[in-house]
Amino acid sequence: MLKRSTRPAEGTTSPPVDEATVKRYPVLVEFMTQESWEDGSPRELASVLLVREDGRWKAGLLDKAEERTLWVTAEALAGLLEALERRAAKPDADWRQMRSAKGRKR
């Protein structure tokens, strides 16, 4: 059963990503952990959104730095991140422009 988590103290950083995760999902890990561009300027981290809709599982990679999203759909939760990793690694991946929430300024 889920329990309420304790919040980390102010100023603490997230723990490093374990080697097995980096090996299995190198593209997703890079999107979600690279805090700066190659010129050293700050980069907004991406996130992954998991959704269960219409009897199917969906995962979206939300690339906030470039204001775009990439989605995959699967029948089962197992393999969904692998599908997202494969899709994000493709140079011709079907990225879509993020839609901003109504009335929200970007």
Question: How would you portray this structure in words?
Answer:
This protein has 3 helices and 4 strands. The chain has a 4-stranded antiparallel β-sheet. It has helices at 19-24, 26-33, 80-89; strands at 47-53, 56-63, 68-74, 96-97. The protein has one domain (19-95). By secondary structure, it is an alpha+beta fold.
* Mean pLDDT across every amino acid position: 85
Number of domains: 1
CA radius of gyration? 16 Å
Q: What is the strand tally?
A: 4
* Secondary-structure element string: HHEEEHE
Largest sheet: 4 strands, antiparallel
Shape: globular
Strand content: 15-25%
- Going by helix content, strand content and strand pairing, the class is alpha+beta
* Contiguous uncertain segments of 5+ residues: none
What is the helix content?
10-25%
- The number of helical segments is 3
As an assembly, this protein is single chain
Strand order of the largest sheet: 1-2-3-4
> In whole angstroms, how far apart are the ends?
37 Å
What distinguishing features does this structure have?
3 helices, 4-stranded antiparallel sheet, 106 residues, alpha+beta, 23% helix
